[in-house]
């Protein structure tokens, strides 16, 4: 891919229009916007997607569960770092 030059995070997203290139203010903004996109539900059911659809809700629940796992890992690392 050529022609993309930006200091902002970029994501290539599959949409009903094909592939879209989106830029975001930050990596966090990128993640938050993607979570709020009903297309995320395609990961659960490629045939069903849309904001607030059941696949979208399930995908968001998986994101929450993963975020909780990451927080646990961070807390464990802090404990290890403080023990040394």
Structure overview:
With 84 residues, the protein is of the alpha+beta class. 46% of the residues lie in helices and 14% in strands. The chain has 2 helices and 2 strands. The protein has helices at 27-35, 54-83; strands at residues 10-15, 18-23. A two-stranded antiparallel sheet has the order 1-2. A hairpin with a 2-residue loop joins strand 1 (10-15) and strand 2. The protein is flat and about 55 Å long. The relative contact order is 0.10.
Percent helix: 40-55%
SS-based class: alpha+beta
Mean pLDDT: 88
**Gap between N and C termini:** 45 Å
- Shape call: flat
Count of helical stretches: 2
Low-confidence residue ranges: none
* Adjacency order of strands in the biggest sheet: 1-2
Strand fraction equals: 5-15%
- Taking all Cα atoms into account, the compactness measure Rg is 17 Å
Q: What order do the helices and strands follow?
A: EEHH
* Number of β-strand runs: 2
How would a crystallographer describe the biggest sheet? 2 strands, antiparallel
Short descriptors:
single chain; about 80 residues; alpha+beta; two-stranded antiparallel sheet; 2 helices; about 15% strand
What's the quick description here?
The protein is α+β, with helices and mostly antiparallel strands and 84 residues long. The protein contains two helices and two strands.
Draw up the topology in text.
Blueprint: E1 10-15, E2 18-23, H1 27-35, H2 54-83
Antiparallel strand pairs: 1-2
């Amino acid at each position: 891919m050529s022609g993309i030059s930006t200091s902002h995070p970029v994501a290539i997203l599959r949409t009903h229009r094909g592939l879209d290139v989106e830029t975001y203010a930050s990596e966090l903004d990128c993640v938050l916007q993607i979570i709020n996109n009903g297309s995320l539900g395609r990961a659960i059911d490629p045939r069903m997607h849309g904001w607030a659809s059941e696949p979208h809700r399930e995908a968001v629940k998986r994101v929450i569960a993963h975020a909780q796992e990451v927080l646990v890992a961070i807390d464990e690392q802090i404990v290890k770092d403080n023990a040394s």
